[in-house]
Design brief:
- With 511 residues, the protein is of the alpha+beta class.
- The protein folds into four domains: 34 residues; 91 residues, Uridine Diphospho-n-acetylenolpyruvylglucosamine Reductase, domain 2; 135 residues, Uridine Diphospho-n-acetylenolpyruvylglucosamine Reductase, domain 3, CATH 3.30.465.10; 220 residues, Vanillyl-alcohol Oxidase, Chain A, domain 3 (3-Layer(aba) Sandwich), CATH 3.40.462.
- Helices cover 35% and strands 22% of the residues.
- It has 19 helices and 20 strands.
- Strands 12, 13, 14, 15, 16, 17, 18, 19 and 20 form a nine-stranded antiparallel β-sheet that branches. It has a five-stranded antiparallel β-sheet with strand order 5-6-10-8-9.
- A hairpin with a 5-residue loop joins strand 5 and strand 6.
- Helix 7 runs antiparallel to helix 13 and helix 14 packs antiparallel against helix 16.
- The longest helix is centred in the C-terminal third of the chain and has 21 residues.
- Bound molecules: flavin-adenine dinucleotide.
- Flavin-adenine dinucleotide binds next to strand 3, helix 8 and strand 10.
Length: 511
């Protein structure tokens, strides 16, 4: 009897082992079979933090992306973390369920899928919006739920500023991780050069502080490497004292263009006064009027700074002039009001050359020559903007161990070219992208012929089929790949977060 019981017990134990938990039992597979997927975030975090497709808040979230191409993308769910640990959980759930994700700060990337993902988890940082200043007022800390307006408004009350964006609604996340050209860039470098430290959620969900002395390799990579290395849950930026500044926009008709290009070139070349800032844009207004728009700033409350004398002496009449003494926050709302945030489909394209007066004129002429091929597109608002990466700015990119952008101060100053478009109909996508590429390639060919070409592509202005990481140079790209391999060996931020400019290439082909 005794031996019968023990045989039965053994048999049932063996059965139990195979039926209820085999020795190679896989918890992940079991959870997946139970229907755990990315929407399970709702069970863990509740309605306030997770929006799904049937909810009206889901629709209003998707409709708030800056570009229509990003609005067309429908995530499986939208997750709104409140703290770094929530972000960590989202990354791990995404890995567990093999569910792709995207992360949104200000949602101003025009790249389709840059910060929104079809059928995956779109992580929106909107609930992560703390802001603080250190007791010595030298470091301003903010989470990625902020736009530059809220950062500057807070900073102003402390009598300080940081080196950030120039349009109020742009997010702190994308702009800082791709570089960040600021009003104060000639004095301080790019936004990324002024990051003292980052709080980052890595691919394995670990939350780390990254600085020049902690994880220095990752710190270098994050300052221009985009979304390829982790999700940043806090930025700590060097702050500096600032009161009011002078600046605004002047709009001119075509006749002022030669004088404006002279002034642009001379201001871009000078090295004595890094408080000056400029963007010279060439635009087009229906039915066929060419306009020049110059955005001028002087980062002190000085209306007639000597360095601005050539611009101030241009005697062609202005159609509008908003220059004046104001706060940095007010300046950023000025650019918004001027149409920097036109609704519709959006495209940026960028390239760089050495700063050269003739090239500025040639590039402007190419833009206007090619324009008739697309000028009948409904809702078209195109603008060619020329900026200068001044010598002083380029030198500052070597601060704190440098950044991966591959910018050589000895080659400066550089002319940064951007064409920004908005338009209405998807049917016009292909010809507008092709127009952009024609203008770029003709301008680059002209630069090459003059020995003035330069490889750098600014990530924050790149078209979805451009490859900024490649433009950083082969040594920097190899270093970035090694760093990614160290912190993200299974390529979570390359494969599970496929949107935006990846280490191995552009996110999409030209339509
Ligand atoms: C109207 C307008 C004005 C602009 N003005 C300037 C300017 O003055 N200077 C300048 O340099 N550029 C400027 N830009 C370009 C701007 O820097 C880029 O469009 C940038 O990507 C926008 O950042 P965002 O956070 O709003 O975008 P998002 O679309 O939210 O993010 C862009 C990318 O960054 C990633 N990302 C965002 N936050 C994080 C994070 N916390 N961790 C990891 N990845 C993250 C996203 O996943 C996405 O891939 C402007 C753009 C627009 C549309």
């Amino acid at each position: 009897m005794k031996s019968f019981v023990s045989v039965a017990a053994l048999l049932s134990a063996a059965l139990a082992q195979s039926t209820f938990e085999p020795s190679d039992f896989n918890v992940t597979e079991a959870l997946l079979k139970n229907g755990v997927d990315c929407t399970s975030l709702k069970i863990i975090f509740g309605n306030d933090q997770v929006e799904t497709r049937s909810e009206s808040s889901y629709t209003s979230f998707v409709n708030a992306f800056w570009s229509n191409q990003q609005r067309e993308i429908k995530p499986e769910c939208i997750f709104k973390p409140e703290k770094a640990l929530d972000v960590s959980t989202a990354v791990l759930i995404s890995r567990l369920t093999d569910c792709p994700f995207a992360a949104k700060s200000g949602g101003h990337s025009p790249v389709p899928g840059g910060s929104n993902i079809n059928g995956g988890i779109t992580i929106s940082f909107e609930k992560m919006n703390s802001l603080a200043i250190s007791s010595d007022k030298k470091v301003l800390s903010f989470q990625p739920g902020h736009t530059w307006l809220s950062v500057y408004t807070f900073a102003e009350k402390q009598g300080v500023a940081v080196n950030g964006g120039r349009v109020s609604t742009v997010g702190v996340g994308g702009l800082t991780l791709g570089g960040g050209i600021s009003y104060t860039s000639s004095a301080n470098g790019l936004a990324c050069d002024n990051v003292v430290s980052f709080e980052v959620v890595t691919a394995s969900g670990i939350i780390i502080n990254v600085s020049e002395t902690q994880y220095a390799d990752l710190y270098w990579a994050l300052r221009g490497g985009g979304n390829n290395f982790g999700l940043v849950t806090k930025f700590n930026l060097e702050a500096f004292p600032l009161g009011q500044v002078w600046g605004g926009q002047r709009i001119y008709t075509q006749e002022a263009m030669p004088a404006l290009i002279d002034a642009y070139f001379n201001l871009g070349q000078q090295e004595e006064d890094p408080k000056a800032h400029q963007i010279l844009s060439f635009a087009f207004s229906a039915p066929n009027v060419a306009l020049a728009i110059v955005e001028l700033e002087y980062v002190a409350p000085v209306a007639n700074a000597t360095v601005m004398a050539e611009y101030n002496a241009i005697n062609s009449p202005t159609i509008a002039d908003t220059t004046g003494i104001k706060t940095l926050a007010r300046l950023t709302t000025g650019l918004d009001e001027s149409g920097a945030s036109s609704p519709g489909r959006q495209l940026f394209i960028t390239w760089s050359t050495k700063l050269d007066k003739d090239l500025a004129t040639i590039t402007k002429d190419i833009f206007y020559e090619e324009l008739p091929t697309i000028s009948d597109a409904a809702g078209l608002v195109p603008a060619l903007s020329l900026q200068v990466l001044t010598k002083s700015l380029l030198q500052k990119t070597k601060k704190r161990g440098g950044n991966p952008l591959g910018l050589d101060p000895a080659s400066g100053p550089l002319m940064n070219c951007l064409i920004a478009f908005s338009w209405t109909n998807k049917a016009d996508d292909s010809r507008i992208h092709k127009f952009a590429e024609r203008v770029r390639s003709r301008s680059v060919a002209a630069a090459t012929a003059k020995g003035k070409s330069y490889p750098y592509l600014y990530m924050n202005y790149a078209a979805p089929w451009q490859n900024p990481i490649e433009s950083y140079g082969s040594a920097n790209k190899a270093r970035l790949l090694n760093i990614a391999q160290k912190y993200d060996p299974t390529e979570v931020f390359q494969q599970l977060q496929p949107g935006y400019f990846k280490l191995q290439g552009a996110p999409m082909p030209m339509p």
